[in-house]
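Priority: medium. Attachment 1 of 2:
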């Protein structure tokens, strides 16, 4: 959609490619390409050439179940990324080679340690693993966001109550746990100052993580039972706004954090 003319143009993916689906997420990479999730991978759309390119997951269906794509993003180098929630894997579309790279997230060892060897072995016989039916030690990667000013991908893990930080150059994974295990991430958006914003779909809260200071900030939403599943950061003219839809209350929320100048002005006003 062109916001100035309000003209809407619809681009249909070719019949020989997978349709969009699998908890659809859109993102624009550093080269201006649009990435969107498909059930078994991602599609890249070139808005100038009006051309789609398809990248497939290495393992969409396995003997123990099926795992659709859950979330997609593009990095500043023009590569695409997506999550397979049921498999705890992150797919990377390497544009230079036209191939798919698969990155495995570490298991939750604390949950595995709670089970006996016989119980662990029983899960090897499970045949219906999926996004909503995970292993007890699963991380549950969902919607993600890249830092367009750094070589970093951030992934929200619902079952693991954590963020996964992935170096988009080396594919190295670092886990960042939430301050509270009850926090369950859903969608991630990174602002121009490298801050990681995410909604907590079961907590009616929004979190901000400052990776430089390794500091968490939590913001309460003005309603309860919101079940927010998307988040977007709007930055313009020095003002940052965090926008969230809330499905249960049928509302859109806009969070405007106070700047240091705003806080100083309020302190000065209170001092009078």
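Attachment 2 of 2:
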């Amino acid at each position: 959609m062109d916001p100035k003319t309000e003209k809407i143009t619809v681009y249909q993916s070719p019949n020989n490619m997978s349709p969009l689906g699998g908890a659809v997420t859109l993102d624009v990479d550093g080269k201006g390409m649009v990435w969107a999730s498909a059930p078994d991978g991602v599609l890249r759309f070139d808005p100038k050439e009006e051309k789609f390119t398809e990248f497939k997951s290495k393992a969409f269906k396995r003997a123990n179940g099926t795992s659709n794509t859950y979330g997609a993003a593009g990095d500043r180098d023009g590569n695409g990324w997506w999550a397979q929630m049921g498999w705890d894997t992150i797919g990377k579309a390497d544009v230079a080679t036209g191939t798919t790279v698969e990155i495995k997230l570490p298991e939750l060892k604390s949950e595995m340690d709670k089970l006996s060897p016989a119980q662990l072995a029983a899960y090897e016989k499970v045949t219906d693993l999926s996004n909503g039916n995970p292993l007890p030690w699963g991380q549950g990667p969902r919607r993600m966001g890249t830092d367009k000013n750094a070589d970093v991908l951030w992934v929200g893990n619902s079952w693991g109550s954590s963020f996964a930080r992935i170096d988009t150059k080396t594919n190295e994974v670092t886990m960042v746990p939430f301050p509270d295990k009850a926090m369950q991430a859903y969608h991630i958006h990174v602002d121009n100052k490298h801050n990681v914003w995410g909604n907590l779909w079961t907590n009616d809260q929004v979190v901000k993580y400052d990776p430089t200071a390794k500091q968490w900030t939590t913001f309460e939403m003005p309603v309860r039972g919101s079940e927010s599943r998307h988040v977007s950061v709007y930055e313009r003219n020095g003002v940052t706004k965090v926008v969230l839809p809330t499905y249960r209350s049928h509302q859109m929320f806009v969070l405007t954090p106070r700047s240091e100048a705003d806080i100083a002005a309020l302190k000065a006003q209170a001092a009078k």
